[in-house]
Amino acid sequence: MKISPYFYDLRSAYQAELDDLISDSEGKDVLRKRLAEKRNEIAFLVQMMELAPEMVAVVFHRGFRFVKPAAIEQLLGLPVDELPDWHSLTHAITLEPWAASLAQTVLREPQGARFMAVAAGLEYLQQHARMAPAAAAHADSDGDDTDDGEDAAEHDDGYDALSADDAADPKNNRGREEASSNWLSDVGFDRKE
């Protein structure tokens, strides 16, 4: 899977936005409360969809179900000017019932259909965080001479070799840690012993 520079940059901002919402100054977990507050402000937040999509996309945190991951992974490789609108992705992504009414508010906006695709992409990356660094490293190593039609599996470098089921299995922590260490080492960081 390749991640476009647009999603690669936005992914960090989205994660930072979620991190800011997680706890209060006393360290208490307040994510649910803060997300509920943001969701109540959706009519105001839609004004920021183009300037700060990560700030609006967090209202859909845990609101998507990815039925056909291949479609969303293809979306993540596209530049911003080639992103499809939400309606072309509904076969691959469904909304949780609580998120459907929020989506209707967003879809009434001129850029709402494209924004929903962006929000889905960001949430997919957040849910599958292990893919993002590997895909970015993979995209960097591919260079400009890679045929766009090549299957990502042909370039398997082991960094994203764990499936979602494997990642949930505690026995695979060692494999994830090793892959993470390998990646960090490859980009210039010292290995932790």
List keywords for this structure.
193 residues; 2 domains; two-stranded antiparallel ribbon; globular
Layout of helices and strands, plus pairs?
Layout: H1 5-22, H2 31-40, H3 42-45, H4 53-57, E1 64-66, H5 69-76, E2 93-95, H6 97-107, H7 112-127, H8 131-142, H9 164-168, H10 173-186
Antiparallel strand pairs: 1-2
Helix pairs in contact: 1-7, 5-7, 6-7
Q: Can you walk me through this structure?
A:
The structure is a single chain. By secondary structure, the chain is mostly helical. It is built from 10 helices and 2 strands; from the N terminus they run ααααβαβααααα. Strands 1-2 form a two-stranded antiparallel ribbon. The longest helix is centred in the first third of the chain and has 18 residues, at 5-22. The radius of gyration is 18 Å and the shape is globular. Residues 132-173 have low confidence and may be disordered.
Brief overview, please?
With 193 residues, the chain is mainly α. The chain contains 10 helices and 2 strands; from the N terminus they run ααααβαβααααα.
